[in-house]
Amino acid sequence: MLSMIGEKNGRLYQVLRHEPERRRPRANVLAELERERGRIARELHAGAGQPLAGIKLNLEMLDNWAAGLPPEGRDALARLQALTEQALNQVRSVSHGLHPPEWQGLTTAEAIRYLVQSSGIAASLEVETAIEPLPDEPPHAVKVVLYRCAQECIANVVRHSGATRLSLTLRPLPVSFSTMIELRVEDNGHGFQPDTPGRKGIGLTAIREHAESLGGACNVLSNPLGVTVVVRLPLAVD
């Protein structure tokens, strides 16, 4: 099922890359991507989460009836319970990461705050956030790009950067750019070479294309002192 998720996401990103050739509005593809994430999350919950929960319940019932089992049998039952719990937690984690329902009903600023808090990143490194009130709530497509960019940056910092500090800023730009929003994520990790084979991940590539499709931009600056990702998007999208 995890392989299926990766395959479907890969196909969706290919659609995004070739969208100019198809002459379809990119914002529609953004909506399609989010719908697909939601559908896969629901499939995970129903197709794997519920059966695993049923297995866990039945194992607990067996445990209550297993007083007469030899020690080896009880040990095997305990291992099965532990493995089932691990698998259930993994399915829930993947499903939640694909399409966490909580942030959909929040404002953009609240959603970014929720992401930082729920990621647990503050437990492993120093995190600074500066999230300013926005003059207006942006369209859903803009909110999705900002949230997914922050999510991708946090994941990259945890997995690859070796950083000890992360800074995240969300703000409206100065008066002369009053219709733009800026998301800036910086870390003090070892950086990366964008042209290194294997380092052109689909995450930031897709975010850059999403931002450009909405009239914005995504810039990535990397050096041995860290990585800075800056996304600027219009507050209103035609």
Supply the key terms.
238 residues, alpha+beta, five-stranded mixed sheet
What does this structure look like?
- With 238 residues, this protein is α+β, with helices and mostly antiparallel strands.
- It has helices spanning 2-17, 19-22, 26-64, 71-98, 108-119, 140-161, 202-213, and strands at 126-131, 165-172, 180-187, 217-223, 226-234.
- The protein has seven helices and five strands.
- A five-stranded mixed beta sheet has the order 1-2-3-5-4.
- A hairpin with a 2-residue loop joins strand 4 and strand 5 (226-234).
- The chain starts with a helix and ends with a strand.
* Overall pLDDT level: 77
The biggest beta sheet, please? 5 strands, mixed
CA-based gyration radius: 21 Å
Structural class based on helices, strands and sheet pairing? alpha+beta
Q: What's the count of strands?
A: 5
* Strand proportion: 15-25%
- What pattern of helices and strands is seen along the backbone? HHHHHEHEEHEE
Are there runs of 5+ residues with pLDDT below 50, and where?
20-25
Taking strands numbered 1, 2, ... along the chain, how are they ordered across the largest sheet? 1-2-3-5-4
Overall outline: elongated
Q: Name the helicity range.
A: 55-70%
Write the layout of secondary structure elements.
Blueprint: H1 2-17, H2 19-22, H3 26-64, H4 71-98, H5 108-119, E1 126-131, H6 140-161, E2 165-172, E3 180-187, H7 202-213, E4 217-223, E5 226-234
Parallel strand pairs: 1-2
Antiparallel strand pairs: 2-3, 3-5, 4-5
